[in-house]
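One chain given next:
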Amino acid sequence: MGTYHIGDALKEVVNKSRLKNGLRAAAIEEIWEATMGKTIAKYTEKLEIINYTLFITTHVAALKNELHFQRELIIQRLNEAFGEKVISNIVIR
């Protein structure tokens, strides 16, 4: 049996369990602010990842419009921040 670093062992446990989706859901708020900036994060009320789809809730019409036009770039940036393909679609409500 080989030796493992504790970080590698934890990643393996998370990848094989249902915890991965819960951890992504918890991390999206922080990653969203770091990726999109504090102003945009301030005006987005709710973020959810369900089946590779990011649901964004905002009541600001101009922000909805801007997010709609930037969907592909947002998907690319967030997936880079996660280090893997987590989001393939965005729904703006």
Residues 21 and 45 are 20 Å apart (CA to CA). The first strand starts at residue 46 and ends at 50. The chain is about 60% helix and 15% strand.
